[in-house]
Design brief:
Structural class: alpha+beta
Shape: flat
Largest sheet: 2 strands, antiparallel
Number of domains: 1
Strand order of the largest sheet: 1-4
Number of strands: 4
Strand content: 15-25%
Radius of gyration: 18 Å
Number of helices: 3
Helix content: 40-55%
């Protein structure tokens, strides 16, 4: 029996929440782990997005558009865990 209605918005929600908590756990583990291989593993993260932000100045108004995603290994694991939970719910 399904506990929740599977919609595309719920899938996006589970992916974002899984990625958020995974990345958060990676940052916490990185700060408390001793020097060595484990810390180096969690120190590396992928960053992609618009950097520096794009600025459009039309004298009447100025618009700045930009975003950056940073994700580490535990973030990827969190995303896959979110997908798994979504499929099981």
């Amino acid at each position: 029996m399904a506990l929740l209605k599977k919609t595309p918005w719920m899938l996006i929600f589970f992916i974002l929440i899984g990625g958020f908590f995974g990345t958060l756990m990676g940052e916490i583990l990185r700060s408390v782990a001793p020097e060595g291989g484990v810390r180096n593993l969690f120190l590396h993260s992928l960053s992609f997005g618009i950097n520096p932000p794009f600025t459009l100045d039309l004298r009447l108004f100025t618009a700045t558009i930009g975003f950056t995603f940073r994700i580490n290994i535990l973030g990827f694991i969190g995303i896959f865990l979110g997908l798994y939970i979504y499929k099981q719910a």
